[in-house]
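user: can you give me the structure for this one chain? C-alpha cells are fine.
assistant: on it. calling the predictor now.
[tool input]
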Amino acid sequence: MRQITLLAMCGLFSSCWWISQPAKTFDEAPIPPCNPPVVSFSEIPVAQPVPGRDGFVFSPFGNRLVDCQGMASGTLVYDPYDTEEPRKRFRVP
C-alpha cells in the first residue's frame, strides 16, 4: 500500500513544471528606461494655417498639408509624414 502512495506522489511532483525549471538569476544589468530628448515648449515650431480651410495646417517640416480639425490651439501634434525616431512635433496655431 505504501508503494502505490509513493508512486502517485512521484507522478504528481514530476508533472509540476516549476520544479523542472532552472533557477532565475538576476545578474543581468537592468534595461535603462527610454527617455525621449527633452525639448522646451518654446523650441517646438508652430504650424501655419491653410488660408480658406479651417482645421488644416502646413507642417513646418516639409510644408505638407495636415488635418488638425477639432484640435485646440497649442496642441502638440506629431508630423504624420515623419517616420524616423525621434518623431518631430509641432504646435497647432
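assistant: here you go. The first strand starts at residue 48 and ends at 49. Helices lie at 2-14, 17-20.
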